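Shipment paperwork, digital attachment
Item: protein structure file
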Amino acid sequence: MKFYLSTRQIPELKELSMPERMAALRAAENKLTAPEKTLLNILKLLIIVPVFVFILRAGEDWFALVWAGCFILAYPFFLKPFQYSLSVKYLKLKSENGELSQ
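Attachment content:
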């Protein structure tokens, strides 16, 4: 599985504008299978739950808020490329007129 850090790196979406790329990715995400969606949700939980743990620990150690911020910043950097990579296989190839078929 190839990881895409940006939607511009996906060959099927390269020529589309940003709103068109996002719409195509949303349609592809809707086609994900149950195990793929479950995997994505587990990954989301693995990032979100520590944020709340660190926020709860902020009463004892204020530095825990810095770690919570790091986890919040890590969310789009780790989850989005994985999400793009899972969704790519559900994107249709470009048709003759250059548009994606859904």
